[in-house]
Amino acid sequence: MAFSLTSKHYTLRGCILSAMVQKIDTSWTHAKIDLNKHLGNNDGAFDIDGVGWYDSAEPGSCRLKGTSLCAELRMRDGEYAPEVRINLDLFVTNHDGSLRFRKPSWSILVSSACLVLENATLRGIVLGRDGQYYPSEINLDEHYGNRGGAFEVGGGSFSLSGKDFRLQQDPEAVKLVAELMDYGGVYRYAEIDLSKSIINQNGQLAFIKYDGWFNKDHWASVITDEIPVIGKAIASLYHAGSHEANAVKELLCQKNSPLAATGLVLGSLIGRALGSPAIGAILSSTLSSPAMLAQGRILNMMAARDMGTCGEDKEAVLGMAVFDTLRELFASGAGAYAAARFDAVNEAELNSDRSDHRLYGVDFWMRSLRDALLQLRPVNAFLEDFSMFTMMKRVLTLLQNQPVEQWHMPLHNFASAIEATKMLGSSYQAEVQPPETLVPGQTYTIMLHGTRLAVTCVEGTSHVRLRQFGGWATQRFQCVMLRERHMGFLFNPSDSSHPSTQTDDDPFTANENGSSGAGAKGRYLGYDSTGTLTCKATRQRGWEHVGAVADDSQRLPGQEQAYMLWMARGTDSLAPVSRVSGDKLRVMPASFTYFSFLNVESAEYSNVLNCLERVSDLY
Question: Which domains are delineated in the chain?
Answer without folding.
Answer: 3-101 (2.30.60.10), 108-217 (2.30.60.10), 220-421 (no CATH), 429-616 (2.80.10.50)
